Amino acid sequence: MVSQIYADGWEATVDGLPVAILATDHALQGIPVEAGQHVVQLRYRPASLRLGLWVSASTLLALVAVLGWRGVVRFRRRYGAVGSRPSRTATLAATDSRSVTK
Question: How far apart are CA 20 and CA 16, in angstroms?
Fold first, then answer.
């Protein structure tokens, strides 16, 4: 018997082979093991954790994409797109006839 609360999402192996986890004493986990020395491993891998990781990773990728696109748009507004016509301020400065040189 393992002093661990029985819940879905737990996986157990005995000597590297998967075994069923049994509910013992109505609340704890029980793992059937034959007499002798064995290596027992418990892993907690609930479906909700995997779903949460996928949702978090997807949200992070979407955020990076939106911020990246916003940066591209801001860069193009500030410096103009490569191969495009000059920006309006550059055109106005070049055609300004009020410049006087002495």
Answer: 13
Q: Quick: pLDDT tens for 62-87.
A: 999 999 999 888 888 888 766 555 55
pTM greater than the 0.85 cutoff: no
Which residues lie closer than 8 Å to 2 by C-beta, 6 or more apart? 28, 29, 30, 31, 42
Query: Does residue 40 contact residue 31 with C-beta atoms inside 8 Å?
Result: yes
**Partners of 43 in the β-ladder:** 11
Distances (CA, A) of 4 to 9, 30, 35: 13, 9, 21
DSSP 99: -
Rounded CA gap, 23 and 46, in Å?
17
Going by pLDDT thresholds of 50, 70 and 90, the confidence category of residue 52 is very high
